[in-house]
User: Fold these one by one.
Assistant:
Number 1:
Amino acid sequence: MLRIAIQSKGRLYDDTTSLLKEADVKVNRSERALLVRSSTFPIEVLYLRDDDIPETVASGVADIGIVGLNEVMERDENVKVVQHLGLSKCRLSIAVPKAEHYTGPQWLQGKRIATSYPHILQKYLKEQDVKAQIHIITGSVEITPLIDLSDAIFDIVSSGSTLVSNNLAEVETVLQSDAVVIANKHLDAEKKTILKELIFRFQSAIDAQGKKYVMMNAPKDRVDRILSILPGSMKSPTIIPLADDKWCSIHTVLDVHSFWEIIGQLKAAGAQGILVTPIEKIIG
Ligand code: ATP
Ligand code: MG
């Protein structure tokens, strides 16, 4: 049995619970239950505030956890990052009022910086050889320059729209963050085996995200053209003969990012009856 700590509510909750579902780890959580055993996998889920997850894993109260890398770096607990999930992507950045003429990290010398991430900020300032006053604030950090509580902020940014609406400009990116799996450093052999299987299942679900399975019919004399359009990242596409021996069916996997552009080129090259289906898992 492996105990995994995840966020009980908040931004990571939805991503984490759907990842567990995609990994076929079924967890039927009745309202507000804090510890729930999976009915399909030797795992129990502990629901916590994200701030508490690194320490809980470091102390061994939970064996592993899923939490933002930003929290892991801030808490600086003795845990191992074992997998990047690519979910809940954000960054920790320094922002200053738009009207300021920011010239580089030295601009921060002697300034007041508001943040909920004092540890990461302190480390960054030390690396840059800058001395500044760090004001620890747990929420609404972006408002502090407006009310003259700070000269700059150090906070989570994703789209940047919060900064824009508060007349702030992002000037330094200090940490790129995504949700990660962290593990206690002293797991026994049985727990390590369960963790390995879980990571493998997570990876299969992650690899399938953003991918589509595409099937199309094409005259045989167009196959070479069509194959030259398909990206080379996946293994060779499958080519299946059809009842009409002048035609065949081509099956491949496409990335959603380049999807519409490639479909357009395929149509122009003579592909017909293009079928697109989602992929649940990709086992590498
Ligand atoms: P808790 O109540 O558990 O302490 P919280 O309020 O500290 O929750 P959330 O706002 O739910 O935390 O964010 C959880 C994590 O999601 C953050 O630590 C960060 O890794 C990520 N995150 C935060 N804001 C964003 C965003 N705008 N876009 C993407 N990811 C984000
Ligand atoms: Mg928190």
Number 2:
Amino acid sequence: MSQKEYIGFNSITQVGEILRERNPKEIFLITGKSSYDRCGAKSILEPMLCSCRTICFSPVDETPGIKDIQSGITILSQQSCDLVIAVGGGSIMDVAKSINILSLNPGSIEEYLIKKKKMICRGRPLVAIPTTAGTGSESTRFAVVYVKKTKYSLDHDLMLPDYAIVDPQLTMTVPRYITASTGMDALTQAIESYWSIHANETSKSYAKEAIELSMKVLPDVCNNPSAESREAMMKAAHLAGKAINLSKTTACHALSYPMTSYFGVAHGHAVALTLGEMMGYNDGVREEDVLDVRGKNYVQRTMKEVFSLLGAGNSGEAARKINHLMSAVGLQTKLSQLGIKTGEQLETIVKSGFDSERINNNPRALTEQAVRGILKKIA
Ligand code: NAD
């Protein structure tokens, strides 16, 4: 499925072009409660949308969950909307993608999320407009949904938004911590994509550019943001999204979900915590635990390429670069600094993280023992 992209400052005004092309009668507009106004999108979009009936919806919860998706589906099913516009961070875009597709596929949300029932119908045309620079959800076929504390993913080609509007202006208001955590999400996604067992030449070229851009710009965009650094970070996040759309993410993402759902660590911060340690782990791949069908030598070569993209000569140096970068943008690098204790709490991450489907995309197999060892190193 192809997507139309509008990238750069003021690209949000291209919504006017989309409205002329689609001529919708009724629009379903999904936004964050306060970020829609704060990021400046509301004042630009409102005059454009006034010519057609617009149904507005904002999720109640900060993390994407079944309750909000069900409320959105109920409202959308009672209306005759023929265009959906999502404006927000990854959470809002994922809720919008879920509402849109599930509203036209029969059956309960749980059937699709948990029992993996196959989606057969496209949603309505969807315009995705990110207001954070991190997830790249505007360019992926995934939507994350938490059921109680377990993370699930909807995953289908039909879920790729029809339009992605990637306007860095909308991220100018993002505070430092969210800029840092979302930025680290983009970098981690790009690195995981590069070493994923599903990586191919195309995903690697997106990932390479995303890694180079985010390594270069992350300190500036967090500590001294400018129009240029916001633009570069937004581009990096979008490219990382395109990369994982092909390759999916791996162990760092798998281990992050319980850190977020049980201990409230922001998504991007959580994925970055194990990134440094995974460098050494994956570099130590052996014939007996390689998961990539291209073999051990391929994985080792890939890891060397990752180190080189980070400006490092080996796994230890690469891990130090990641830790140094996290500290430079104000992110803690230890679980204890985030209130997560060894013992029962660490075991919760081992058990729930190990269950995630993403763990098997890692180039080197992980045992519970290996995961425990990695987490203890960052305790
Ligand atoms: P988020 O969407 O949860 O937003 C974080 C915070 O930033 C919120 O409080 C929000 O109100 C605020 N915010 C958003 N835009 C703002 C702006 N312009 N100015 C000021 N504040 C603003 O965070 P996120 O990191 O963008 O998204 C995380 C979610 O995305 C997680 O659920 C994660 O699993 C998911 N995700 C999805 C994909 C995918 O492909 N679908 C990929 C990666 C991550």
